[in-house]
Amino acid sequence: MYLRHNGSISIGVIRCTRGVFQILRIRESHIRKIHYGTALGAIGLVALHISVRFATGNFAASLSYEYVISNYQNFTYALLLEMILILVSVHGFNGLRGILLDYRGGYKYEKAVNWGCFISVLALVAYGTVTIVLANQIKLGF
Prior knowledge:
The protein is an alpha+beta fold. The protein has helices at 28-55, 65-73, 75-103, 107-135, and strands spanning 2-5, 8-17, 20-27. The chain has a single domain, classed as 3 helical TM bundles of succinate and fumarate reductases (Up-down Bundle), CATH 1.20.1300.
């Protein structure tokens, strides 16, 4: 939900506590801090991911189907991939949100962009999580 409070722009997040819905306001400056934090976190985790890929030896072999599935079945590595997915999704859609809000204004437009980006992040993270969960159910014949 998009709110204006004392001339400052903020986004409201709905929270349910003991059956009572509350709107939490997040200022645009805090959204920028989230954007910067997700960028730094993603850079660090992607660097770790790439270093693991090269440290395992043959980079081309690490792209084989069996190797990729075995990575998803390794809990620690799957957790790393899930964190990368979340950070990159939040960062990317927050950046898209910023670009779209710079392009045009208006209460309904801003509300639609905010909700559209929020729902897109949830959908992308859900899709990626389902991929990791389904990959854990595949039996490999080593």
